[in-house]
Write a structure and sequence with these properties.
alpha+beta, 3 domains, Elongation Factor Tu (Ef-tu), domain 3, single chain, 12 strands, eight-stranded antiparallel β-sheet, OB fold (Dihydrolipoamide Acetyltransferase, E2P), 330 residues
Length: 330
C-alpha cells in the first residue's frame, strides 16, 4: 500500500513539473516571442577638413574648439617666408619683362639709329674706294702692266666691301623700322607670363589665410601655434551641424520596416525625446557583417545593411555621437 502511494506521488510530481514547464513555455512564447526589436543608431554630421596649399608655420588662430564659424570667417594665419621671397622674384621678373616690352614698342633709340647710319656711310665710302681701285687695277691688267693676281685681289676686296655696305644698310634699315611684329608680340607675351607668375604666387599668399568654406562648429584643432605644417596637412575639422543624420546597422530580416523615402521614429536618450527621420540611404555592408552563419543554423546568412535617415524637422541640440533608439516589431 505504501509503495503504491509512493508511485502516485512521483507521478503527480512529474505531471506537475510538465505542467509548469508548459505554462512557462507558453508565457515565454506569447511574451518574449512578441517583444519588439531594439536597434541602436548614432547621429552623425557632415565634416570638412581645413588645410593649406602651402607649407608654413601656424602664426595665429582666431578660433578654438567648440566655436561657431560662418562661411568666409578667418580661422588661422600661416607664416610662409619662402612664398614671400618667391613673390619678390616674380615681381622683379615682371618689371624686367615690362621694360623689354616698352623697349620693343618704343623702337630704336635715336643714338643707335644715328650710329647705324654712320656705319652705313662708312661702308659706302669704303665701297667707292674699293670700286675705283678695282677699275684702275683692271685697266692696268688689260694693258698687260698688272698681273692677274693683283687684279683678283682687288676684285675680292671690292666684293667684300660691297657685302659690308649691304650689311650696314640692312642694319640701318632695321634700326629705322624698329622691332619686328613678332618681337613685339614675344615681348608682350613675356609680360603676360610674368604677370601670371605674380598672380600664382599671390594666390599662394592668399592661401596662408585659412577661411571657413561653410557654416559650422570647430570640432578639432590639430597643430599648435608655432608648429610647422606641410602642404595639405589638416589644420582643423569643422562639423556642419545643419547637415545631420542617424546611421543604423540593420539585419536584413528587419529591413521590411525600412524603405528609402519612408519615415521611421527614433528615441534620442540624451534629449529624452522622440523624432521622426526619413530614410535616405541603404547599403549592404558586405559578407563580413553577417549576423548568422549557414553552418550553424542550417539556414541562409543574414547580412547587415547600413541605413541612413535624416530628421524630417531639425532636432534641437542634436549632436554627432548621440544615440538614437529605433523600435521595430518582429
Amino acid at each position: 500500500m505504501a509503495e503504491k502511494t509512493q508511485r502516485n506521488n512521483v507521478l503527480l510530481a512529474f505531471i506537475t513539473l510538465v505542467a509548469v514547464v508548459a505554462v512557462v513555455s507558453a508565457i515565454g512564447f506569447f511574451t518574449l516571442g512578441t517583444e519588439p526589436e531594439v536597434i541602436q543608431g548614432q547621429a552623425e554630421a557632415t565634416e570638412y577638413r581645413v588645410s593649406s596649399k602651402v607649407p608654413g608655420r601656424i602664426l595665429k588662430y582666431f578660433v578654438s574648439e567648440g566655436d561657431q564659424v560662418k562661411a568666409g570667417d578667418t580661422l588661422a594665419i600661416l607664416e610662409a617666408p619662402d612664398v614671400m621671397a618667391k613673390l619678390s622674384q616674380a615681381q622683379a621678373a615682371e618689371q624686367a619683362a615690362q621694360a623689354l616690352n616698352e623697349k620693343a614698342i618704343r623702337g630704336t633709340r635715336a643714338e643707335q639709329l644715328q650710329a647705324a647710319f654712320e656705319m652705313w656711310q662708312k661702308a659706302k665710302a669704303g665701297l667707292e674706294i674699293a670700286e675705283k681701285s678695282y677699275n684702275r687695277v683692271n685697266r692696268l691688267f688689260e694693258q698687260g702692266v698688272m698681273t692677274a693676281q693683283k687684279r683678283d685681289e682687288a676684285k675680292a676686296q671690292y666684293d667684300a666691301m660691297a657685302a659690308t655696305e649691304r650689311a650696314a644698310h640692312a642694319q640701318y634699315t632695321m634700326a629705322k623700322n624698329g622691332a619686328q611684329r613678332e618681337d613685339k608680340a614675344m615681348a608682350a607675351a613675356q609680360v603676360e607670363r610674368a604677370k601670371g607668375a605674380v598672380a600664382e604666387v599671390a594666390s599662394y599668399i592668399a592661401e596662408t589665410y585659412l577661411l571657413a568654406s561653410a557654416d559650422g562648429e570647430v570640432t578639432e584643432v590639430f597643430p599648435k601655434e608655432g608648429e610647422l605644417v606641410g602642404t595639405g596637412a589638416p589644420i582643423m575639422n569643422i562639423a556642419r551641424l545643419n547637415e545631420m543624420w542617424v546611421t543604423f546597422n540593420v539585419r536584413e530580416d528587419f529591413l521590411k520596416q525600412f524603405s528609402v523615402g519612408g519615415e521611421i521614429k527614433a528615441y534620442i536618450p540624451a534629449l529624452e525625446k522622440e523624432a521622426t527621420f526619413k530614410v535616405t540611404y541603404m547599403k549592404d555592408l558586405g559578407t563580413y557583417a553577417a549576423w548568422k552563419a549557414t553552418k550553424t543554423t542550417g539556414q541562409y546568412d543574414l547580412k547587415t545593411f547600413e541605413v541612413k535617415a535624416k530628421p524630417v524637422q531639425a532636432v534641437e541640440n542634436l549632436r554627432p555621437g548621440m544615440s538614437a533608439i529605433c523600435t521595430i516589431n518582429k
